[in-house]
UniProtKB/TrEMBL annotation:
GO terms for biological process: base-excision repair. It comes from Vulcanisaeta distributa (strain DSM 14429 / JCM 11212 / NBRC 100878 / IC-017). This is HhH-GPD family protein. It holds the Pfam family HhH-GPD. InterPro entries: DNA_glycosylase (IPR011257), Endonuclease3_FeS-loop_motif (IPR003651), Endouclease-III_FeS-bd_BS (IPR004035), HhH-GPD_domain (IPR003265), HhH_base_excis_C (IPR023170). Keywords: 4Fe-4S, DNA damage, DNA repair, Glycosidase, Hydrolase, Iron, Iron-sulfur, Metal-binding.
Length: 230
């Protein structure tokens, strides 16, 4: 199993162009640019809320709009009127709800002293999960890509790709998957970001729920499911 995981990670290292085609930008381990080209941790957090049930291309357009208006920081969002923000983020799904949630989140982060203080908190995940609209995957994504905290987000793509490639199935429980994969994958910031970006990319482009494109998938030689279909 460990040998297969290592080969899997090496394959992920070789698909940089694939990752970039869907908005992941592998650079140095601590860069926020992994996350859709985000320029700051603030932008990671803002877009982590906006991208929920919304396409990344729409979020990129909205982020550029926020940048032009100076609304791409936690401080500026905290001081924004939610109704005005909802107009600015027009195009994202549930924009009025997301505007309210973003303002509340930004204000709560500001109250505790900003992102640096949040990064130092021993209960970062609990803090994030207590924010309206922040679920476990979003919380772990913010921790990994904005705060550089070693934690692995688990998406539906993660479950589908790893269950097919490795033949594992810890069940539907998020934390069971998280524990299983964090035990298997080397604990390294670059690797965690690479794995998350790669499984989402492969899940979107090849490892489809129905009629997966196994013959075109970069993991076809490693994948138990793909080999079983031959």
């Amino acid at each position: 199993m460990n040998e297969t995981v290592n080969r899997l990670i090496e394959t992920f290292r070789g698909i940089k162009s694939e990752l970039e085609s869907v908005g992941w930008y592998p650079v140095d381990a601590e860069s926020t640019r992994w996350w859709g080209g985000a320029e700051t941790p603030d932008e990671v957090i803002i877009t982590a809320i906006l991208v929920q049930q919304t396409r990344w291309d729409v979020v990129h357009e909205v982020l550029n709009r926020l940048r032009k208006l100076g609304l791409n920081t936690i401080e500026s969002i905290a001081n924004a009127d939610p109704n005005y923000l909802a107009e600015v983020i027009k195009g994202v799904n549930y924009r009025f709800t997301k505007a309210q949630r973003l303002v509340k989140l930004a204000r709560n982060i500001t109250v505790i002293g900003g992102l640096e203080r949040l990064r130092l908190k021993g209960d970062v995940r609990d803090f994030l999960l207590n924010q309206e609209g922040v679920g476990r995957e979003t919380a772990d994504s913010i921790m990994l890509f904005a705060l550089n905290i070693l934690t692995l987000p688990i998406s539906q793509y993660t479950k589908r790709v790893f269950s097919r490639v490795l033949g594992i199935n810890p069940g539907n429980d998020y934390d069971s998957w998280k524990r299983t994969l964090e035990d298997l994958i080397p604990r390294d910031l670059y690797t965690y970001k690479l794995v998350h970006a790669s499984v989402i990319t492969i899940g979107k482009k090849y490892c489809l729920p129905d009629n997966p494109l196994c013959d075109k998938c970069p993991l076809r030689d490693l994948c138990l499911y793909a080999n079983g279909r031959r």
